[in-house]
TrEMBL record:
<feature type="region of interest" description="Disordered">
    <location>
        <begin position="528"/>
        <end position="549"/>
    </location>
</feature>
<dbReference type="InterPro" id="IPR006429">
    <property type="entry name" value="Phage_lambda_portal"/>
</dbReference>
<protein>
    <submittedName>
        <fullName>Phage portal protein</fullName>
    </submittedName>
</protein>
<dbReference type="GO" id="GO:0019068">
    <property type="term" value="P:virion assembly"/>
</dbReference>
<dbReference type="Pfam" id="PF05136">
    <property type="entry name" value="Phage_portal_2"/>
</dbReference>
<dbReference type="GO" id="GO:0005198">
    <property type="term" value="F:structural molecule activity"/>
</dbReference>
């Protein structure tokens, strides 16, 4: 008898048969012939679990406002939630998110047949474009902002905050030509960050085939073609008339210039709105932790406020009975107690001495805790929050007391992958489209270095607008060891100065080299000896720790 025959003979009594005698495979725990435990409907563990199965829009759209309002309440009033949002913002975006132009000169050369599109031209073009961009994005008078309050970097910080809290980032790109003039705006392109709450169906109608929570879509392709935005937030009492008026904004112009920029994380196909921020999966646990924290705090306050009390030898029922029945002896005893304590303020070295009337005794109040392992419970919940938000547990709790270098670095590297992915995803879906609109105007207005026969912008916008986005650097846990590793990686050809500057410092490598040249020249101009970092020593010396010298 073969192995297969043996297994079939041993297993046959455990596998039920159908009416035709054909056997049905059972799952591990399901007793009713279900091949997967996950599909069990009648077992003790799974019978009450019947979640709703809907499309991407029908699952989220009806509940979007409720979810967002709860998440915002937590972020406003709970330190853990606010800290998780702040850490994500600081590590992924900061307030200095900026592009470094990397035009695709190879694509332009192939498209135009012009060999003048080479690496030298790309470097010259990139420097010119980035200089004009800084004039617009970092304008001290804030003409880049429709509302003239924020720089571009601050606007991206706000938009990303909306994305991780509300689930959507939304902006309009008004063309404000009347602002352009001497001493005022240099460009007509402006950015207006919109509260995602304002993106909704006109008059709060139900979702339709071509309208999903304010997003008008092409029924044939499912592509968003327009957005319906309230003139004012529905709870803005100061603009009551505008709260019932919606404006329709087309997604882009006929030639492809963006009018509206809408960004959210796509979790499913055919999804047209966000609404589930990074705290949505852990919302319930955070709420429970708040209640637990409050209970612990109340217990501590009770212990601190009501430390002790004096107990009479008569319980309340006996005392009430005696007083109502006219028991003169009990009444006399109570009067004597009151008189006794009115004149007993004896103290020793400034501390009052507890002198009791005969029959009395002192008791203390001890508020019982909900559980003795509060710290462990809190840590477990915060670990859950950190995992759901894509952060390290230390970043959420700010408690670094129980970690060493290896565990901290490993945890932060994992968190950095998520941060980097979120920054790149946001950069592709939001600021890149804004820069596309600005660059179209810059190509028309500014004297950019372009060879003869260069294709028009609308024909090669992807090649002209190609760029990388710099945000905050990863930073260092052990600056000596990690910088030594960076130098070794560059010497071995496994990394570049551009990568190391961007990843670790959030800096532009060319600006770093330019500044270094200025500083070295300043030493020489003052007849000062140049330091080691000026490059006078071999780079191979940096692979030794300072104590090895």
């Amino acid at each position: 008898m073969g192995v297969g025959d043996f297994i079939r003979r041993v297993a046959s009594p455990l596998v039920p048969k159908t009416g035709s005698g054909r056997r049905i495979l059972n799952a591990l725990t399901s007793p009713f012939g279900t091949p997967y435990d996950a599909a069990d409907m009648y077992g003790q563990r799974m019978q009450g679990w019947q979640p709703y199965l809907g499309s991407a829009d029908t699952e989220l759209s009806p509940y979007r406002d409720r979810i967002v309002s709860r998440v915002r309440d937590l972020v406003r009033n709970d330190g853990w939630a606010a800290g998780a949002v702040t850490r994500t913002l600081d590590n992924a975006i900061g307030v200095k998110l900026r592009p470094i132009s990397k035009p695709d000169y190879r694509a332009l050369a192939r498209l135009s047949g012009n060999t003048a599109f080479d690496a030298v031209w790309a470097a010259e073009y990139a420097k010119a474009v980035d200089a004009h961009w800084r004039n617009w994005a970092d304008d001290p008078l804030r003409y880049n902002d429709t509302e003239r309050m924020l720089t571009f970097g601050q606007q991206m910080h706000l938009a990303f905050r909306h994305l991780i809290v509300d689930g959507d980032a939304l902006a309009l790109l008004p063309w404000m030509e009347d602002r352009v003039g001497l001493g005022t705006a240099q460009y007509a392109t402006t950015v207006q960050i919109i509260d995602p709450d304002r993106l909704s169906n006109p008059q709060q109608t139900f979702d339709l085939k071509n309208l999903r929570n304010g997003v008008e879509i092409d029924p044939a392709s499912g592509a968003p073609i327009a957005y319906w935005i309230r003139k004012a937030h529905q709870a803005d009492w100061y603009s009551a008339a505008d709260t019932v008026v919606w404006d329709r904004y087309e997604r882009e112009t006929k030639w492809g210039r963006p009018n509206v920029v809408h960004m959210f994380e796509h979790h499913r196909g055919a999804q047209h709105r966000g609404g589930a921020g990074i705290l949505t999966p852990v919302l319930q646990r955070l709420k429970m932790l708040i209640k637990y924290d409050g209970t612990e705090l109340d217990a501590a306050i009770i212990n601190a406020t009501f430390a002790a009390y004096i107990e009479s030898p008569f319980d309340p029922a006996m005392t009430a009975e005696g007083l109502e029945g006219g028991d003169e002896q009990l009444a006399y005893y109570q009067d004597q107690r009151i008189a006794f304590h009115q004149h007993r303020n004896i103290s020793l070295a400034g501390s009052r001495m507890p002198i009791l009337f005969p029959g009395e005794k002192i008791n203390t109040v001890s508020a019982a805790r909900p559980a003795s392992n509060f710290r462990d419970f809190e840590r477990a919940v915060l670990n859950n929050v950190a995992s759901g938000a894509g952060l390290s547990p230390m970043q959420v709790s700010n408690d670094w007391s129980d970690v060493n270098y290896s565990s901290a670095r490993g945890s932060l590297l994992e968190a950095w992958k998520t941060m980097k992915r979120r920054r790149d995803d946001f950069s592709i879906g939001f600021p890149t489209l804004i820069r596309l609109a600005w660059l179209e105007e810059s190509m028309d207005e500014d004297d950019l270095p372009l060879p003869r026969g260069a294709p028009p912008f609308i024909q090669a916008r992807a090649a002209y607008a190609r760029a990388i986005w710099l945000g905050p650097g990863r930073g260092w846990i052990d600056p000596v060891a990690e910088k030594q590793g960076a130098v070794l990686g560059m010497d071995a050809g496994l990394s570049t100065l551009e990568t190391e500057c961007a990843e670790n410092e959030g800096a532009d490598w060319e600006e770093t080299l330019d500044q270094r040249a200025i500083e070295v020249q300043a030493f020489k101009a003052r007849n000062l000896p140049t330091p080691e970092w000026a490059g006078q020593n071999l780079a191979s010396k940096t692979d030794r720790k300072p104590e090895a010298e």
